[in-house]
Write a structure and sequence with these properties.
16 helices; mainly alpha
Amino acid sequence: MRHARRASDREILRLAVPAFLALVAEPLFLLADAAIVGHLGTASLAGLGIAGAVLQTAVGLCVFLAYGTTAGVARRLGAGDLRGALAQGIDGLWLAAAIGVLVTVLGVALTEPLVRLFGASEDVADPAATYLRLAFLGTTPLLLMLAATGILRGLQDTRTPLVVAVGGNLLNVVLNLVLVYPVGLGIAGSALGSVLAQAASAAAFLVVVVRSARAHGAPLRPDLPGIRSAGRAGLPLVVRTLTLRAALLLTTYAVTLGASGARAQEVDLATHQLAMTLWTFLAFVLDAVAIAAQALTGRALGAGDVQGARETTVRMVRWGVLSGVVTGLLLAATSPVLGGLFTGDGDVRDRLVPVLVVAALGQPVAGVVFVLDGVLIGAGDGRYLARAGLVTLVAYAPLALACAVATAGLVAIWVAFTAVFMGARLVVLVHRARGDAWLVTGAEITG
C-alpha cells in the first residue's frame, strides 16, 4: 500500500512540477507587466486592470481548448490509441484558429463599448481601451497555445509547455521593457510586446505538435466532423468557464460601483488589479496539481481503471490542501511588502494588505477546489461542472452587488468572493466527487 502511494505521488509530481513551473512563469511575467505599467501611473495600472479583466474573460471562455483536449487526448492514450489522440488534438487546433479569428475581429470592433461597461473615468478608460485594442490581436496565438498545451498534457508531457512558457514569457518581458520605455509607446508598448511574444510561443507549439502528428500518421487537414465534435464537447466547459469569468467580472464591477469619487475609484481599482493578479498567480500555482488531475484521471478512465482514478483523486486532494496552506502562509507573510514592488502610491499599498490577508485565508479551500475541478474535467464531467457553476454564481452575485450598493468597501467585496464564491464551489465539487456518476470509462468522453 505504501509503495502504491509513493508511486502515485511520483506520478503526480512528474506531471505537476513541470506544470507548476510553466504555470508560475506566466503569472510571474504578468506581475512584471503590472510592475512596468504601474510605474506609468495609477490611472494606467487601473486601466490595465479593466483591460485585463475583459481580455482574460474572452480568452478564458476558450480554456476548454486546453482542458477538453487534455481530457480527450488522455482518454485515447489510456485506451492505447495514440494516433487517434493526436488526430483529436489537431481538430482542437483548427477549432482554436477559427474561434481566434472571430474573437479578434469582434474584440477590436467592440473595444470602446466593452471598456465603457465598467463605468470608469476617462483617465482610466483611455489607457484601458488602448491596451485592449492591441491585445486582442494576440487572441488567435493565445488560443492555439491553449489547444497545443492541452494536446501535450493529454500525452502526459508537461515539460514542453514549460520550455515554451519560460521562453515566451522572457521574450514578453524584454519586449515590454523596450517598447514601453526606450521606444516610448507607453501602455500600448506593453500590449504590443505581449502580442509578439504570444505569436512566437504559438509558432513553437505548432512545430512540436505537427512533428508528433506526422511521426504517428495523424492527419493534419481540417476534419469538419471532428472540429464540430470538439466544439460540442467543449460547450459545457464554456458554460462552466463563463460562470467563473462572470464572477470575476462581477467582482471588478462591484469594486468600480462601490467606490465614491474618482480618486477612490482609481485607488480601489488599482488595488483590486494587484490583488487579482496575485490571486491569479497563486491560482496557477495551485492549478499545477489540477493539471496532473486532468491528465491522470483521463488516462485512468480511458484504460477502465476506476479504482486507480479514485485513489489518485484522494492523493491529489491531499496535495491540494498542502499546497493551499503553503501559498496562504506565504501570501500572508509577504502582504506588507508586496505593494511596494508594483506601485509608489501609498494609498494603494496600504489598502492592498488587508485584501491579501483575506485572499491568504482562502488558499486551502482554493487548493481543494482547483484539484477537484481538474479531476472532473479529466473525467469529462462537463455538464455537471456547468450546472455547478451556475449554482455558485447565483449564490455569489446578490452578495457582491449588495456590498457594492452599500459601499461596504474593497475588503468586504474580497471577503464575499473568497468565502461565498469559493466556498460554494467547494461544496458542489466535494458533493460530486463523493459519488460515482463521474467515473465513466472508455476512450470517448460521454459527459
